[in-house]
Design goal:
The protein is of the alpha/beta class and about 260 residues long. It has eleven helices and eight strands. Helix 10 links the parallel strand 7 and strand 8. The protein starts with 8 loop residues before the first strand and ends with a helix. It binds phosphoenolpyruvate. Phosphoenolpyruvate binds next to strand 8.
Length: about 260
């Protein structure tokens, strides 16, 4: 397994935090701390912060992404935002299938698949989130659950489009709980995901796929997680709201 075949990507998921003015301040604080990063640095902000974050990141190595998008380009979908709307303002990346969307907003593997195909069709890069619940891990079906999520989400996605897909393995029991998967647990599932992708496409597609770990990754545990052979980056919630902590994680990915 050759880790140098893949791009390391550290992405902050700000969730429902920060006003536009606060977003500007946070990007400005992160900017000097990550300027020498040897990995992709991305901040995924609330929709209303995207313009401010883009402006604050201009001329830097920080990319700005969104946290969701709808599967139709336009229409009667009150409260939703489409992929072409995001690209029209210069947003290239979107998180899809986050467990909070699945848990609180009725997202299913099928709607994640629809959203993912719509985002790819609009030319976007997608961070596809998958992960098991605590009871599923305790029942010993983590592999089955995560494989199924990956297979359904990627239905109808071409091998060429896979170059614009990143998968984030996020055990639901580790998100926002302070409980991190051990580095061995994280690597084991990231490896399983890679093998599923190898089966769906081919070895080269699997070996080139960036797979992130997410779930209470922080400044203290990032280096060990990111040093794992199948962990190519992180999707970071809480710690991405603190510029210094986020920068430590970016540094760990640069070195990992
Ligand atoms: C996330 O929101 O994707 C996440 C991993 O959150 P946290 O880092 O806070 O667990």
């Amino acid at each position: 397994m050759n880790k140098t075949l893949r791009r390391a990507v550290i992405a902050g998921n700000w969730k429902m935090n920060k006003t536009p003015a606060e977003a500007k301040a946070l990007v400005e604080a992160i900017r000097p701390l990550v300027k020498d990063a040897g990995c992709t640095v991305l901040v995924c902000t609330p929709f209303v912060d995207l313009a401010a974050a883009l402006q604050a990141a201009e001329g830097s190595n920080i990319e700005v992404g969104a946290q969701n998008c709808h599967f139709e380009a336009s229409g009667a979908f009150t409260g939703e935002i489409s992929a072409p709307m995001l690209t029209s303002m210069g947003i290239r990346t979107v998180i899809l299938g986050h467990s909070e969307r699945r848990q609180y907003f009725g997202e299913t593997d099928q709607t994640v698949n629809l959203r993912l195909k719509a985002a790819l069709a609009a030319g976007m890069q997608v961070i596809l989130c998958v992960g098991e619940k605590l009871e599923e891990r305790e029942e010993g079906i983590t592999g089955e659950i995560v494989s199924m999520q990956v297979k359904i989400a990627l239905q109808g996605v071409s091998k060429e489009e896979m170059a614009r897909v990143i998968i984030a393995y996020e055990p639901v029991w580790a998100i926002g709980t302070g409980k991190t998967a051990t580095s061995a647990q994280a690597n084991e599932v990231c490896h399983e995901i890679r093998e599923v992708v190898a089966g769906l496409y081919d070895r080269a597609t699997a070996d080139g796929l960036t797979i992130q770990y997410g779930g209470s990754m922080n400044a203290k545990n990032a280096a060990e997680l990111l040093a794992q052979p199948d962990v190519d980056g992180g999707l970071i919630g809480g710690a991405s709201l603190k510029a210094e902590d986020f920068a430590v994680i970016v540094k760990a990915a640069t070195e990992g």
